[in-house]
């Protein structure tokens, strides 16, 4: 698995946001979640770039973007930034594919910040309360203590946490791609800081408005997702008018790594169906 660099940056309220654009066709934006980065989407984005102009970006506090301790990284900030980036890029009505809490970011941008989409695909997303694993809740309550762990102990804890998101198991290369951004003097405290700032209030604020979404919406879920169980997919489908749903067998929360071929095929089918939308 090749580690691709995001070659462009934009500054927003003191934050440095790493991003990239490539391919040709209608705009397609991928949103990552936590504790991931755009690197998780890169192989699939590459595969779709022959038919779409693909945008990848790392949210502040994640991946190659800045991790300043003074800058909030909560879902409210990320949703506002996403809407700003689309304006900066000159992108109107993009196709959006969002994973994990990237789903909440896309939904907040749509419902609170005036965004509209050509289509929206929600992949194992954070959208409904309650959310957060027992480890997530433990860290949230004691983030300052965890931030002081010896580096080797910290890395072991993050590796164990990340492994739990995969149903099929992770290669050492994939594990390093996911864990490396959270190591070192900047990465370690950033890992615990983003968990400490996670709050269900950001999904509760918009959950009651999911029925207002009138764009085409497709929900994709790893059937074996241990982090956000698949019953959330059916609940979410019932709340969004005319939303469709597809499950990916033998895939957990890290569906991009557990079922890359099935996920790419499903995304291709969905996006091609709506590619002609203005």
TrEMBL record:
The keyword Transport does not apply. Keywords: Hydrolase. This is Alpha/beta hydrolase. InterPro entries: AB_hydrolase_1, AB_hydrolase_fold, Carboxylesterase_BioH. It comes from the Bacteria. Residues 28-264 form the AB hydrolase-1 domain. It comes from Microbacterium algeriense. The keyword Hydrolase applies. It holds the Pfam family Abhydrolase_6. GO terms for molecular function: hydrolase activity.
């Amino acid at each position: 698995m090749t580690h691709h660099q995001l070659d462009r940056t934009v500054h927003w309220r003191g934050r440095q946001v790493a991003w990239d654009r490539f391919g040709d066709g209608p705009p397609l934006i991928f949103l990552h979640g936590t504790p991931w980065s755009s690197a998780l989407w890169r192989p699939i984005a590459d595969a779709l770039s022959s038919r779409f102009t693909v945008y990848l970006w790392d949210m502040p506090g994640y991946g190659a973007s800045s991790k300043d301790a003074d800058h909030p990284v909560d879902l409210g900030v990320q949703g506002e930034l996403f809407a700003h980036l689309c304006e900066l890029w000159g992108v109107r009505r993009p196709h959006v594919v969002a994973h994990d809490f990237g789903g909440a970011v896309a939904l907040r941008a749509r419902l609170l910040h005036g965004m509209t989409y050509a289509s929206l695909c929600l992949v194992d997303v954070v959208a409904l309360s309650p959310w957060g694993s027992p480890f997530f809740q433990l860290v949230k309550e004691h983030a300052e203590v965890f931030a002081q762990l010896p580096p080797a102990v910290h890395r072991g804890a993050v590796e164990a946490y990340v492994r739990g998101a995969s149903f099929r198991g992770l290669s050492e290369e994939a594990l390093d791609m996911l864990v490396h951004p959270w190591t070192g003097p900047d990465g370690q405290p950033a890992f615990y800081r983003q968990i400490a700032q996670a709050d269900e209030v950001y999904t509760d604020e918009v959950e009651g408005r999911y029925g207002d979404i009138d764009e085409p919406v497709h929900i994709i879920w790893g059937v074996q997702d241990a982090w956000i169980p698949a019953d959330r997919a059916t609940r979410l489908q019932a709340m969004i008018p005319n939303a469709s749903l597809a499950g990916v067998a033998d895939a957990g929360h890290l569906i991009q790594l557990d079922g890359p071929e099935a996920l790419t095929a499903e995304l291709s089918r969905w996006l091609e169906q709506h590619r002609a939308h203005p």
